[in-house]
Every structure is written in structure tokens, then in C-alpha cells.
Write a structure and sequence with these properties.
Blueprint lengths: L1 H49 L23 E3 L9 E3 L9 H4 L5 E4 L11 E4 L4 E13 L6 E9 L5 E3 L2 E5 L15 E10 L2 E11 L6 E6 L7 H5 L4 E7 L4 E6 L2 E7 L4 E2 L7 E3 L14 E3 L16 E3 L16 E3 L11 H4 L6 E3 L16 E3 L11 E3 L11 E3 L15 E10 L4 E9 L2 H10 L1 H10 L4 H19 L4 H11 L3
Antiparallel strand pairs: 1-25, 2-5, 3-4, 4-25, 5-24, 6-12, 6-25, 7-9, 8-9, 8-24, 9-10, 10-11, 11-15, 12-13, 13-14, 16-23, 17-22, 18-21, 19-20
Helix pairs in contact: 7-8
InterPro entries: Calret/calnex, Calret/calnex_CS, Calreticulin/calnexin_P_dom_sf, ConA-like_dom_sf
Keywords: Acetylation, Calcium, Chaperone, Disulfide bond, Endoplasmic reticulum, Lectin, Lipoprotein, Membrane, Metal-binding, Mitochondrion, Palmitate, Phosphoprotein, Repeat, Signal, Transmembrane, Transmembrane helix, Ubl conjugation
Protein name: Calnexin
Length: about 500
Amino acid sequence: MRLCVALLSLSLCLGLMGHVRAQEEADDVEMDVEDAIDDMREEDVEEEEEKAPGPPPVPTVTYRAPEPMGEHYFAESFDKGTLQGWVLSQAKKDGIDEEIAKYDGKWEVEEMKDTKLPGDKGLVLKSKAKHHAISALLLRPFTFDTKPLIVQYEVNFQTGIDCGGAYVKLLAQTPDLDLEEFVDKTPYTIMFGPDKCGEDYKLHFIFRHKNPKTGEFEEKHAKKPDADLRTYYTDKKTHLYTLVLNPDNSFEILIDQTVVNSGSLLNDMTPPINPPAEIEDPDDHKPEDWDERPKIQDPDSVKPEDWDEDAPAKIPDEDAVKPDGWLDEEPEYIGDPDALKPEDWDEDMDGEWEAPQIPNPICETAPGCGPWERPMIDNPNYKGKWKPPMIDNPNYQGVWKPRKIPNPDFFEDLHPFRMTPFSAVGLELWSMSSDIFFDNFFVTSDRTVAERWAADGWGLKKAAEGAAEPDMSTFKLNKCCRKQIFCDKVIHMKTTRCLFFTSSFIIF
């Protein structure tokens, strides 16, 4: 019997020990999982640190020179690497000092300093504080008839722009046009493009209108764009400038294929295309008795007998009382007791020396010092100088204006689009900044052809510049995805712990 009891006790003990050992092993497994997760977390963090993700690699954009596809009058990409076809002015500018009169500013064909598109070349204005002039003939003159005009080109202010222009001139077709003599006074049909000096950011559209009566030309300026142009001058990116003129006299000005100004040649140019039909008669004069006064003083008004014009505006306040503690015998300012007469003071030359005045320290705690005077208040009886009241002028005739007469210079040009034909493209510029980059000049009458040229030229630059600026939002998303993968590694071991990791890892 005792033997059975002993065996039963031994069995229970072994079972209890086994349960305890199993529990310990389970705890060990739990700790191993915890440790594994911690180890994996540490390893992953170390791996993340060792393989610290940087910006994604810059996609490469291969340059290919644009080719004009369709009708055009001028196309220049400068990718041949020379100034072939362009003429440098050999002239001098009139009316200025001989030292700076010559058009000796330097031009080069080269890539941009910080090009994102190797192989792409352009025309670069290289000199500061110089006159520059260069031009090239069109394939054939452009005549304004039934087709629109589209002019576009690119500009990049590589080093910024302080004061200078980057506009193009379309040189008028004239019998005496000599590109070697191209100067500021060479007749042009249109001037178009950016210009800046100080904080004045301009985008010119100017055309020379021929007076049908006199044959003389007058510059007409488009209204100023409402858009803020500052960015285009300061971001050091390549921008595409486009002018579209239509036979219906409408115009559009675009930057980077976005309209920034539009209007009508008939209604939105200054001065207006057509003069007024009537003008004021220069020989008409205002009659001497013409009364333009809408109000006059009442001639029947009389100054009241009790009106005192001599009463002062301010009087002493008779109710005022001198504050207690006022120091009548103490001056407000005294000579500085610490001041010393300068050693080089000459009383014969400088007069008797006196110490500089400082506030009297005794007066700092007193209500005041020096002789007390009553404060001044407004005089209730003050009326000032009497004036008769104003009444309507019974003889008022209104503001006089000269009569209108027919304008002897009047004309009506309903087709200002029909401008002077032009046969050359030119840049005649002064600039206080260098390294202005020009590229992809194009003149056509087909907007689709112009857009194709823009896509193959400026569009490629835009893609290259955009590729050089990585999308950091994608970079962050990739980081999150990599950390989520770590979470997936341990999800089968410890779900709650994994969720904790996930929530912490996706916070940046």
C-alpha cells in the first residue's frame, strides 16, 4: 500500500515538473520570438543605415536636334555649333560716347553652363555692358495676308538678369536692309520678348504701324500682362516665348505654352491704331466772362456783431492748481557736473566754455521744476476769422471745353494685321548681365507646326530639367514600402508587435 502511494506521488511530481518545464519552454519561445523581432529590427535598422536610400537616379533624356515639320520661314537650333547664317553687326550706335558706341558684344554658340541636356547648343550673349547685334535672313520674307504669324524662341537667364533685354526684332523688308549695319534705328516690323531693369519685369509686344495718310510709322505697344512675370526671370530655367498674330487682328502672348496676355490690335494697343474722328478746336478759346465757379460766397451775408475775430484759440486754464511739491526754484536742466573742458578749448576762438546741459536729478521725483504756469486749453469763445457762407453760383456755366471739330488727321485702318513684311530676325541688345542663352528660333504661319517644333525643342529641355529634380514624395513612399516588408517578415511571429512596428515606421 505504501508502495502504491509512493508511486502515485512520484507520478504527480513528474507530471507537475513536466508542466513547469513546458511552461518554461513556452516562455523561452516567447522570449526567443521577442528577441528575434528585436534582432530583426536592429538588423533592419542597421541595413537601412548602411543602405541609406538617396534620391532616385536621374532619368537620362537623350538630345536630338529638332527638325521643322511643315511650312516655316525660319528655324534655328544652333546645333551645328557655329554662327553660320548669322551676321554680326559692324556698325556703331549714334548719339552716344565713342567708347561704347560699337556693337562689339560677344556671341558664342555653346551648351548651357548647367545643361541637363548634353549636346543641346544655343546662342549665348557673353558680354556685360556692351552693345550686341546679330541677325539672320529668313528663308523668304513673311507677308501679312490671310495666314497667321507665329514667332517663338527660348531664353534662359543662366546667371540671372539685372538690367537688360532678351527680345527679338523682326526686321522690315526694305531695299537698303544691310545686316552688317544692323543698329537700334534699323526699321523693324515687330519687337517681341522679355526685358527687365530693376523691379520692372516686361514682356514686349511692339509693332510699327504705318499711317495710311502720311506714310509715317508709329510704335504701338500692347497692354501690360496681368500675370506676375518675376519667376521667368529668376528661376534660371529655359522658357519658351511665343507670339501669335491672327488675320482677324487678335493676338496672344504665351510663356511655356500658357497664355499670359491677349487682345486685339484695334482695341488693346497704346497709342490706339486709329485716331479720334473729332478733336478739340485749337483755335477755340474760353470767353472772358465764362463763369466756372459752382459755389460762391453769399454776397448778402453779414458778419454777426458779437463775432470776435481777435479771440485767441488757446487760453490759460483758470481752474488749474499748482501741484504740491513743485520746485519753483529748481531749474529743469543743469550743467553736467562731471563734464570737463577739453584741453584744446580756446576761449578766444571758441568762446566761454559751458558744461553741457543734463536733466536736473532733483526734479526726477518732483511733479515739476521751474516757474509754474497754468496749462493752456481750447478757448470756448474762439471763432476765428469770419467768412461768408458758400451758396450755389446762379451764373455757373460749367467747366468750359473747346468745341469739337473734324480731325484733319483722321483715318480708319480696320486691318492693322497687314503690317510691313519682314525678311530677317535680329537681336539688338544691351545688357548688364552675361550668359543669356537663346535657342530654337522659329517663324511660321502654322500653329501646329510651331507646337511640334516646341515639343521637339523646348519640350525636351523641360523633360530634362524635370528629370533632374527628383520626386521626393515617391522617395518617401519607397522608404515606407521597405519598412513594411520588414513588418511582413515577422507578422507570423507576433501580430501585435508587427502592427506596432507598422504604425511607427510609416510616420516620417
